[in-house]
Write a structure and sequence with these properties.
Length: 111
């Protein structure tokens, strides 16, 4: 996906401060943060959004949540609390059409 911002970050054709990386995921800071801690867990596999996951993606989704938990601890919101959010579709607030999980914390967040 040449025009996908996240694919270009993953492929290192766009610079980004990658906070975590393994064979399946990267974690970066959101460039338009909605909270003092606002990170994105992004799979390297290009999936448009939650509506496009398949049963074979189940382990990847579980890993995204466990990495989010680790990042919450590492970035100081593990004890105070944080929000995990998948935005799905334009009406759900999705801006970049590549599956990603928001980790937001560092202040009390509304529902």
């Amino acid at each position: 996906m040449d025009d996908c911002v996240f694919c270009n970050i993953i492929n290192k054709t766009i610079d980004a401060n990658i906070l975590f990386e393994n064979d399946r995921l990267v974690v970066i800071k959101d460039i338009l943060p909605k909270a003092p801690v606002h990170l994105l867990v992004i799979p390297k596999k290009h999936i448009l959004n939650i509506t496009h996951v398949t049963p074979e993606d189940e382990p990847l989704l579980g890993e995204m949540i466990f990495v989010a938990k680790e990042m919450g601890q590492k970035y100081g919101v593990g004890e105070t609390g944080y929000k995990l959010v998948f935005n799905v579709g334009r009406d759900g607030g999705e801006v970049i059409p590549h599956l990603h999980l928001h980790i937001m914390g560092g202040k009390q967040l509304a529902e």
